[in-house]
Every structure is written in structure tokens, then in C-alpha cells.
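Quick one:
INPUT:
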């Protein structure tokens, strides 16, 4: 049994090897490497599949044995300090390994078809493999130094993938925005790591937890120092997991290819922050003030993400704010001490959100040949509608993911979200109200996305004057302006004559090929059934749910005992959570459903809330949501504008004060020399007179 643990290093090494080989091939043999593009894709998928099989074996060993294994090697050994590297295998690690590898393999399979037209196909798989390897290395890290190293690798890979189409100004700005905001959180994280090393003298998780709790028990550590250090540690996950107020990079990250959006939102970058808080949960749990900050940050993020998602027209940005809201739920659960509920929702949300993002990628892929390759059109829900008739499999899978994310039983997210809501009410009623209202908003905006996209009529027909009558070349010109690589297969279609374009106008989006449908169908299975791992069972007397049993070594104290009374309490809580979700669903159906209960002109506007004569308050709410709460504008004024003002002040000081002093000193010497030059006439009597007169003056000064 221990043999598999000794070779666990193979799991992150295999995708890392794929990335290195592809990178070296592109560097030294670019033409040959690109000509073997499918070979490299198959190799990447195969190596990650091997890592996935090992991860499942590790997971099985963990759930049957509940043992924690550590393998450490000395890296830097000195009299005063010892750095070690190694591997930590516990229930949390095993769950994350399965989560990352399963979603990673499916995203790679999906990408093989989705990115087949792109000239950067091979480069994309190199980045994708490195991204997966970095996240696998992060979850296996046994200490803060090693986790910080992989934490930075994850951030670097996200920068590369968000800016994959770097010739497009939007993608270039988005990756820079994500990079800078995450640097803010990472710097604070580094300060927190150094602070706790100063307190405990160790970077190893086990030693750090034991030493810190011992110091607290003996009152040998100042809470005035430990609490700020813990908050600095928390600021790292705030940026990485897009928590308020460092969330603004997440919607802009949708500039990257859709497969990487699925991976970022489901199993890698944003999940890293939740994992980090879960890993350091024993540390945060010992500081009540820090736990309160975590819980309120999560609650604010959940509510803010849900309200901003209400009016988004870009389907990917709508799902991005949905992720932000769900991450807020997870952080809220960890902050109120509901460790199992937070991880439970991380698992169920990962598969549901991967299904939704890959489904949105299928929609975009099918819309591009019709409306053009501009994200402003292919991702704009105003051009969609009625896609369920033309893409039935994608529509069905997207509906399943939507139902799950809304918390409709018995799908996966229902069980985890309901547990978070129940624990929130017990922790503090105000947080309970926030979580409950957020659940209703989630159901509303998710079904708004579904109804606008899949129900009704295909709205692109009403916009033909704007993008077809003028010729399909408009799309190509726009792509050139944005400098997005034009798909290889698109040239023949883009260069059609106008009459051919009008004929093609009668076509509708069509279902995708089997390669892209396969991951969608596979993800339906965990979206339907993964929630049952957290459901308690009654067999004879008392039984905990499987997830609590697996996480038992990581939870202080015994897991919760389940009884029939607990089940009745669970059902009463479920009625409230399902009721608010159904309310949001019905409101969305009333406003955006296939059977309109009001008149609206879809040619000019598909938003009934913006009709003339509408409620001014609803107009304000819509505008507030559509413009992202104006937060980006405030940040631009305060931070960007403030930095520019400081730069101008610095430039002025540098040019007129610092340089002015230096230049003034030089000019004074220049003029002084010129004046002295006039005195140097070359006459010896004049020099003698000056010497005698100066000596006389000095004598008088000394005398008096």
C-alpha cells in the first residue's frame, strides 16, 4: 500500500514533463512540433490520464485507511534554519488530486476540438499541462515555502492562458490586470508566511499548528501580532479566489479561451485560495477575529457576485460572476467553522461549473460561424435564443448544470449549498439572511442565462442588418482590428460573396462534434450524483455521511452524529432553500421565459426591465449590475488615477527639485568660474595685492 505513496511525485511530474517536452520542441524544432500537433495533444492527455489513475488509487487508499503520509527531503540544512521539500498525502490532498486530474483530462479532450483551428494549438497544450502540474504540486505541498512556490507558478500560468490571444488588446489588458491584482495578494501572503515563521520557527504545517496552539495556550504569543499575520495570509486567497475587494480580475479573465476558463473556475486558480484556507484551517480557527473576517468577506463576495451577475449580457462573464458568488459561499462556510460544508461545495461546484463553462464554449463555438469571431457578438446573449432546438445535447447538459448550481434537489450543489445555508443561520442570522437571499439571486440569473440562450427564437435573425447585410467581411475586419488569430478553416467562409453570405444566413447553430460532446456527457454524472457523498445515511442506528468520515483526521473532534431528528431539521431547512431558489426561477421565467408575460421588442432590446416607463428603481439596479457596481470605475479613479498623480508629482520633483539642485550647483560653478576668469589678468602685482589683502582680512577675523 505504501508503494503507491512513494511514487506520488509522478502525479505532478507527468503533466510537467509534457509541458517541458512541448516547450523544448517549440523552441528548437518549431515546424516539426507544430506538424505533430495531434501527437502532442494525445501525449498530454495520456500523461494526465495516468496521473488521474494514480490519484484515484491514492483516493481509495485514503478513504479505506484514513492515514496521513509525509515524505520530506532536506533542501537547505544549516545550524539555524532547515528547509525541506516533500509531499503531504491526506484526505484533503486526495480529494483535490481527483478533482484536478478528472476535470483537467476532460478539459484537454474538449480543447483538442475547440482549439483545433487555432495557430497556437500546441502552445495552448504546453500551458495547460504546466497549469495542471502547478496546481497538483500546490495541493501536495507539505509546508508554506513549497506551497508558495507552486502558488506563484499557478499565477504565472493563469497570466499566460488569460493572455493566450495576446495580440488582442482586451486579452493583453486582462492578463496584466489579473497578474497585478494577484501580486498584491501574493506579497501580503509572503509577509504572513514570514510572520508565522518568526512566531513558530517552522514552515511545516504540522509543526506550525502544534507550536502555535502551544504558544496560545501558554500566552506566549501576542494576538496583536498573530492576528495581523493571519490576515496577511488570508489576503493571498482573497486575490487568488476573487474575493471582494480583489475580485475585479475574474470577469476580465474571460478573454482567454473558454476551456481554460472552465479549468480556472472549476479546479485550479480560484480553487487554490479555498484549498489554502482549508489547509490552514487549524491556524485560522484558533483566531476568532480572523474567522469573523473570513466569514464576512465570503458573505459580501457571495452577495456582490450574485447582484452583479443579474444584468450581464456576456455569457462567460455571467458565469464568472456566478463563480465569484459560489466562492463566497465556500469562504463563508470556512469562516463560520463549517469545514466539511466548504469543501463539499468546492467539489460539487467544480463539476457543475466545468459543465456550464464547457457548455458555454460549445455555444460560442457554434455561434462564431454565424455572427463572426468577435467576443462582443459570439458571447453576447442578445444574439442567441432558441438554441435548445438546434443544440439539444448541449442545451440539456447546460440545464442540468444550471439546476445543480441553483440548488434544486437532488442534484449535487443542492446538498452542499443547503448545508452552508443551515450552518449560516446557526452562526449568525444576518449572515444567514445574506446567504439565503443570495441563493434566490443565483437561481434568477442562472435561469436568465438559460432562458435567453436556449429558449425562445434565435435572435441573431433580428440583427442581420448589423452584421450580415453589410457582408461577412465585417467579422474579419473586426478580428483584424482586435488582432485575434483567425481560424484556419474560416478563410473560405469569410471570403464568400455577399449573396453566398445571405444564403448562409438561413443556417442556425448546430450541435458540436463528438469530441466536444464527450466531456459534457461525462460531467453530467458527477453533477447529478457527487452530492450524495455528503448525505448522511440511516442504516440501523447512526451513520455519518461519507465525506465527513473521509475528512475525520482533519477535523478537530468527532464528526456530527446523525439521527432522525437531524433529518427532520434538514428537511425543514431544505424547504426554505429550495423555496427561495424556485422563487428566483419563476421570476426569471416570467421575465425571460419562452412564453412572454409582457411585450418586448427583441430587435432593440431583450431586457424587459429597460422598457420605457419602467420602474426607475429597477433601472438603477439594472445599471448598477450591468456596470459591475461601478467598482472598476472607482478603482480606476482612486488607484490608477492616484498612481498617475503620484507619478506626475514624482516626475516634477525629479525634474525640478533633484535635477534642479544638481543643475543649479553646476550652473553656479560655471558662472563662478567665469567671474574668476575675469580676475585672472596675468599681472603679478595684482596677485600680490590680492594675497596681502586676503591675509589682512583673515588676521582681522581671527583677532576679533
Amino acid at each position: 500500500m505504501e508503494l503507491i505513496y512513494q511514487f506520488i511525485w509522478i502525479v505532478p511530474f507527468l503533466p510537467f514533463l509534457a509541458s517541458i517536452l512541448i516547450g523544448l520542441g517549440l523552441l528548437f524544432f518549431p515546424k516539426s512540433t507544430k506538424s505533430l500537433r495531434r501527437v502532442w495533444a494525445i501525449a498530454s492527455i495520456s500523461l494526465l490520464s495516468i496521473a488521474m489513475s494514480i490519484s484515484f488509487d491514492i483516493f481509495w487508499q485514503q478513504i479505506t485507511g484514513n492515514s496521513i503520509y509525509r515524505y520530506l527531503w532536506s533542501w537547505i540544512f544549516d545550524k539555524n534554519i532547515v528547509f525541506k521539500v516533500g509531499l503531504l498525502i491526506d484526505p484533503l490532498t486526495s480529494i483535490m488530486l481527483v478533482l484536478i486530474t478528472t476535470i483537467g483530462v476532460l478539459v484537454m479532450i474538449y480543447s483538442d476540438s475547440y482549439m483545433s483551428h487555432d495557430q497556437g494549438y500546441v502552445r495552448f497544450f504546453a500551458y495547460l499541462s504546466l497549469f495542471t502540474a502547478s496546481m497538483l504540486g500546490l495541493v501536495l505541498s507539505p509546508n508554506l515555502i513549497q506551497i508558495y512556490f507552486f502558488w506563484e507558478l499557478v499565477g504565472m500560468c493563469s497570466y499566460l492562458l488569460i493572455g493566450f490571444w495576446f495580440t488582442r488588446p482586451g486579452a493583453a489588458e486582462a492578463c496584466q490586470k489579473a497578474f497585478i491584482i494577484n501580486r498584491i495578494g501574493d506579497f501580503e501572503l509572503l509577509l504572513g508566511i514570514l510572520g508565522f515563521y518568526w512566531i513558530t520557527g517552522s514552515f511545516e504545517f504540522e509543526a506550525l499548528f502544534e507550536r502555535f496552539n502551544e504558544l496560545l495556550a501558554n500566552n506566549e504569543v501576542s494576538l496583536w501580532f498573530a492576528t495581523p499575520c493571519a490576515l496577511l495570509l488570508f489576503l493571498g486567497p482573497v486575490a487568488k479566489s476573487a474575493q471582494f475587494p480583489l475580485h475585479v480580475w475574474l470577469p476580465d479573465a474571460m478573454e482567454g479561451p473558454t476551456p481554460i476558463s472552465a479549468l480556472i473556475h472549476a479546479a485550479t486558480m480560484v480553487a487554490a485560495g479555498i484549498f489554502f484556507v482549508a489547509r490552514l484551517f487549524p491556524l485560522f480557527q484558533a483566531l476568532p477575529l480572523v474567522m469573523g473576517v473570513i466569514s464576512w468577506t465570503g458573505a459580501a463576495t457571495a452577495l456582490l457576485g450574485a447582484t452583479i451577475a443579474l444584468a450581464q449580457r456576456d455569457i462567460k462573464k455571467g458565469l464568472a460572476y456566478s463563480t465569484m458568488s459560489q466562492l463566497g459561499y465556500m469562504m463563508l462556510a470556512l469562516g463560520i467553522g463549517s469545514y466539511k460544508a466548504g469543501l463539499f461545495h468546492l467539489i460539487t461546484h467544480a463539476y457543475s461549473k466545468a459543465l456550464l463553462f464547457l457548455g458555454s464554449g460549445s455555444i460560442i463555438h457554434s455561434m462564431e460561424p454565424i455572427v463572426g469571431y468577435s467576443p462582443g457578438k459570439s458571447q453576447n446573449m442578445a444574439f442567441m435564443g432558441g438554441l435548445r432546438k438546434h443544440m439539444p445535447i448541449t442545451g440539456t447538459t447546460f440545464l442540468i448544470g444550471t439546476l445543480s448550481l441553483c440548488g434544486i434537489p437532488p442534484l449535487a450543489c443542492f446538498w452542499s449549498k443547503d448545508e452552508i445555508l443551515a450552518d449560516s443561520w446557526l452562526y449568525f442570522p444576518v449572515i444567514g439572511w445574506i446567504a439565503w437571499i443570495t441563493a434566490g439571486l443565483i437561481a434568477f440569473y442562472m435561469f436568465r442565462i438559460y432562458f435567453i440562450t436556449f429558449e425562445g427564437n434565435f435572435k441573431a435573425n433580428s440583427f442581420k442588418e448589423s452584421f450580415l447585410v453589410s457582408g461577412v467581411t465585417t467579422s474579419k475586419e473586426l478580428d483584424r482590428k482586435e488582432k485575434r488569430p483567425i481560424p484556419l478553416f474560416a478563410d473560405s467562409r469569410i471570403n464568400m460573396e455577399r449573396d453566398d453570405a445571405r444564403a448562409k444566413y438561413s443556417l442556425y447553430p448546430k450541435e458540436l462534434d463528438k469530441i466536444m460532446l464527450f466531456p459534457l456527457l461525462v460531467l453530467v454524472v458527477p453533477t447529478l450524483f457527487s452530492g450524495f457523498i455528503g448525505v448522511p445515511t440511516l442504516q440501523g442506528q447512526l451513520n455519518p455521511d461519507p465525506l465527513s468520515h473521509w475528512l475525520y483526521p482533519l477535523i478537530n473532534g468527532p464528526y456530527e452524529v446523525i439521527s432522525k431528528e437531524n433529518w427532520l431539521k434538514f428537511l425543514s431547512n431544505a424547504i426554505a432553500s429550495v423555496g427561495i431558489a424556485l422563487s428566483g426561477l419563476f421570476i426569471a421565467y416570467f421575465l425571460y421565459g419562452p412564453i412572454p408575460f409582457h411585450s418586448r421588442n427583441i430587435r432593440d432590446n431583450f431586457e424587459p426591465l429597460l422598457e420605457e416607463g419602467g420602474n426607475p428603481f429597477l433601472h438603477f439596479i439594472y445599471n448598477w449590475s450591468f456596470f459591475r457596481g461601478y467598482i472598476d470605475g472607482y478603482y480606476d479613479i482612486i488607484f490608477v488615477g492616484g498612481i498617475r498623480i503620484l507619478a506626475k508629482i514624482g516626475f516634477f520633483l525629479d525634474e525640478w527639485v533633484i535635477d534642479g539642485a544638481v543643475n543649479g550647483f553646476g550652473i553656479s560653478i560655471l558662472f563662478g568660474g567665469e567671474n574668476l576668469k575675469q580676475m585672472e589678468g596675468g599681472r603679478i602685482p595684482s596677485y600680490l595685492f590680492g594675497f596681502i589683502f586676503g591675509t589682512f582680512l583673515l588676521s582681522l577675523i581671527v583677532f576679533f
